[in-house]
Each structure stands twice: as structure tokens, then as C-alpha cells.
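can u do me a favor
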């Protein structure tokens, strides 16, 4: 959101800027937008520390702007999803200093061994006790064992659904409920994958509790009260396929759940094919997988997977957009945007994720068409790669993405694997054969 398009010249992307780009999305053919959090926030974690769930951050626009966005997008057949952050609030949220809402947060007399996703202990002392923060100290975790917290979030969902918001991406969906006894996490073992080993422990008690499914069953029933039903898309950061598939429930929890096995895989034919085939096999019948290669938390796929190699970018986009299910592209993926270079003195994020968050390169002018002011993060390589130049070039990555989106809308059939040579991966969907050659690298689509 902050890096998409700045209308008022303060260097930060905003809702009016986004509204001004709806023609672009219509041309590209996307059918929904997910906006990173737009609620008021002290920005210790750029919007993911919310201080008011029922308003729009003035730096990003107004409630009237949001209404206009929903309406203008709706006219073009584009739905607007917001980001909801139910795992924690900002420490500046009035709830956190309200003595009557003490039990809305997770407190302990003594810290256990849980560690924060940003490093260091997950506990900070306040007024003689310790509060839990699975992320920064300015992001105290809510206590999802408290029924008032559950009721409050149901009210928040309805508030936005009533305004026409098509659904939510649910931040830290796997983590809302903590172990009621606050037991220590067990140590990680050498067999655990690197994202788990990095914490030194298996995060089985400070997140990933089975009770979270009760919350999502309630949320789904609320989403179904609306016409059309509202969409729940979880940030389900789990690496066990059975745990991931469980978020779909019996078609009574989330309709969509991000698959982090793909986002943490390397660009390798066998590895990706295995992720896709085992994921499809793990899903309950009728459930839709969600594929993504980039987001605001990890190095962009054009960098991480492709090291800037355009052939690989084309291959990655072809794969993401021809698999069955939903595809979520991160802004800039459609032109093969790479991570930006952010010098140490301009680093803002608590966890150093600035390179994947540099502004959208709209054109090759000095400020990239992103802002008329000073952009909050430096521009990336906007002279080399930008929307305006690629839009004019029929053979560009952007035009490929547009063609793939159009193709995606036609493909309805199941995934059928076909024989392939080493370093290759071929599959059929309906009458279309997708031929991915990771050695080339080259992606071909043959219409039978
Ligand atoms: C999610 C967000 C990330 C944020 C964290 C804490 O992982 O994607 O950006 O820092 O939650 O809210």
C-alpha cells in the first residue's frame, strides 16, 4: 500500500493513488486486490501494529476514499480485500492501557522460552508482569481464550463487510491462539527445515494451536451471511501440508490459505513439482490452493528465485498462473520487479524487509512516477524496468503476465502431470499443455 502509488506527494502510497491505477488493474485483468493494512498505526511494523481497527490511517487516506475505491473497483469487476491483524495490536491501541481489558492480552508472571519472530525473547515486562509479543515489543499478542476478544473481532469483520469489503487476508492466521498453559516450546532438531531451525525451537505452543479452527469456523459463518459471501484468505505460515489443509476445514473455515511451502522452495523443477502435487493431494475435495512467489516479507521472486534472469521470471509467472487455484501476485511481480537496493541509512523496517518493499516503478522518470515528493523508501531500478515501457512492448514480461491472467480465467480443469525430461516439468490443464524447462530456462504453452 505504502509503495504502490502516491497521490498527495508525501512520498507514501495512498488510497487515492491506488484509485488512480484502477484502469491499470482492469487492463491487466486481475479480479481482486489485497491491500496491506490501512488502519491507523504507529508503524513500528508498517501497518501490522494497529491502533484502531475501525478507521483508515490518515497517511493513507480517508474512509470516503476507501468507499470510492470499493465502488470504482466494483464497477470494473475487481474486489477489494483488506488485511486484518488479529494476532496482536499496537501497544498504542487504547485496549492495551485499559485496566479493564488486561485479560485481552497474554500475561505471565515469569517468561517462558518463547522467542519473537523478529529475534529475542517474546516477553517484555510492564507493571511488574510480562506480556507476550510474538513479534515486536510494540505488538502485544491478544488473548484469544477471552470471549470478549472473539466478539470484538466479529464486530470488526462485520463493520468492514457492511462497507462492501470483499474479504480479508488474515495476518498470522496460524498463530492467534496460544497454549493455555504457556508451555515451553520444544527444541528444533536437525531434521527441521531452516525456517524452523532459525528459531532454535519448534513453535508449537506460541502458535499453531488446534483451537484456532473454532475462530475461523465462526468467521466463515459470518462471511457466509453476506451476498456474495466474503472471502477469508489466511496467512497460514505452516510447513506441514496436513496443517495447511486443515485451515480449509470441511469447507467451513478459510476459503483460501497461502501455501508457504511454495514460497520457501527454490526454483527447481523437482522441488516445485513435488510441492504442487503433494499440496493438491493434501487438500480436501473442492478446496482451492493459493500460489505465490513473493510478498512483502520475503525477497521478491525475481531476485530470490530468478536472480534477475528474465527467462526464469517468465517461467515462474507461467507456473504460478497456470496451476489450478488462486494466484496472488505481489505488486511489481507482473513486470519482474527485483528487490531494491536500500542503503543502511535508509533502512526502516525492524526486520530489514525494505528491499522487497521499494516503490512500484511506474515509469523511467527520476521519481519513477510513484510520487512527486521524496519517496519513503528509495526507488529500485525503475529506469531499467517499469510499467510504462513494458506496457508498450508486446513481448514484455508485463504483457506476458496479462496474457497468462487471461488464460488463467479460461482454465478450469484439473492438473494432469505429463512425462518430462530432467530439469523439466510438464502438465496439462484442459486442452493446454504447460511445458516448463528449468534448464533453459524456458516456458512454453501449447494449445491442443
Ligand atoms: C505477518 C506480516 C508481516 C508482519 C507480521 C506481524 O507475517 O506479513 O509483515 O510483520 O505478520 O504482524
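np, heres the sequence
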Amino acid at each position: 500500500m505504502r509503495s504502490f502509488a502516491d497521490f498527495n506527494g508525501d512520498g507514501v502510497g495512498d488510497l487515492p493513488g491506488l484509485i488512480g491505477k484502477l484502469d491499470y488493474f482492469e487492463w491487466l485483468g486481475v479480479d481482486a486486490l489485497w491491500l496491506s493494512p490501512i488502519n491507523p498505526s504507529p508503524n513500528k511494523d508498517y501497518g501490522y501494529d494497529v491502533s484502531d481497527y475501525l478507521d483508515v490511517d490518515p497517511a493513507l487516506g480517508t474512509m470516503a476514499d476507501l468507499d470510492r475505491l470499493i465502488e470504482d473497483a466494483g464497477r470494473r469487476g475487481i474486489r477489494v480485500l483488506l488485511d486484518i491483524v488479529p494476532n496482536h495490536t499496537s501497544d498504542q491501541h487504547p485496549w492495551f492501557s485499559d485496566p479493564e481489558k488486561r485479560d485481552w492480552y497474554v500475561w505471565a508472571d515469569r517468561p517462558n522460552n518463547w522467542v519473537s519472530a523478529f529475534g529475542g525473547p517474546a516477553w517484555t515486562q510492564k507493571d511488574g508482569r510480562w506480556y507476550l509479543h510474538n513479534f515486536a515489543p510494540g505488538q502485544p499478542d491478544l488473548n484469544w481464550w477471552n470471549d470478549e476478544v472473539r466478539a470484538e473481532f466479529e464486530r470488526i469483520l462485520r463493520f468492514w463487510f457492511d462497507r462492501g469489503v470483499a474479504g480479508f487476508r488474515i495476518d498470522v492466521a496460524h498463530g492467534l491462539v496460544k497454549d493455555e498453559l504457556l508451555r515451553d516450546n520444544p527444541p528444533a532438531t536437525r531434521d527441521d527445515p531452516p525456517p524452523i531451525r532459525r528459531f532454535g525451537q519448534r513453535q508449537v505452543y506460541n502458535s499453531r494451536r488446534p483451537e484456532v479452527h473454532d475462530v475461523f469456523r465462526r468467521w466463515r459463518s459470518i462471511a457466509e451471511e453476506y451476498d456474495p459471501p466474503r472471502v477469508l484468505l489466511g496467512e497460514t505460515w505452516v510447513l506441514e501440508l496436513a496443517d495447511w489443509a486443515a485451515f480449509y476445514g470441511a469447507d467451513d473455515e478459510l476459503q483460501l490459505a497461502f501455501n508457504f511451502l511454495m514460497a520457501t522452495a527454490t526454483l527447481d523443477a523437482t522441488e516445485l513439482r513435488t510441492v504442487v502435487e503433494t499440496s493438491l493431494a493434501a487438500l480436501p475435495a473442492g478446496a482451492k490452493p493459493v500460489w505465490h512467489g513473493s510478498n512483502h516479507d520475503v525477497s521478491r521472486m525475481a531476485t530470490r528465485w530468478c536472480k534477475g534472469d528474465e527467462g526464469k521470471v517468465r517461467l515462474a509467472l507461467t507456473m504460478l498462473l497456470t496451476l489450478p487455484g488462486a494466484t496472488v501476485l505481489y505488486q511489481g511481480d507482473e513486470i519482474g520487479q527485483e528487490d531494491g537496493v536500500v542503503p543502511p541509512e535508509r533502512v526502516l523496517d525492524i526486520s530489514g524487509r525494505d528491499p522487497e518493499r521499494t516503490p512500484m516503478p511506474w515509469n523511467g522518470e527520476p521519481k519513477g512516477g510513484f510520487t512527486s515528493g521524496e519517496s519513503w523508501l528509495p526507488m529500485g531500478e525503475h529506469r531499467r524496468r517499469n510499467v510504462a515501457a513494458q506496457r508498450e512492448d508486446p513481448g514484455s514480461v508485463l504483457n506476458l503476465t496479462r496474457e497468462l491472467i487471461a488464460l488463467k480465467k479460461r482454465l478450469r480443469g484439473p492438473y494432469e502431470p505429463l512425462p518430462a525430461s530432467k530439469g523439466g516439468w510438464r502438465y496439462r490443464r484442459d486442452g493446454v499443455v504447460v511445458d516448463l524447462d528449468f534448464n533453459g530456462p524456458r516456458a512454453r504453452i501449447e494449445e491442443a
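The chain has one domain: 15-89+147-414. hope that helps!!
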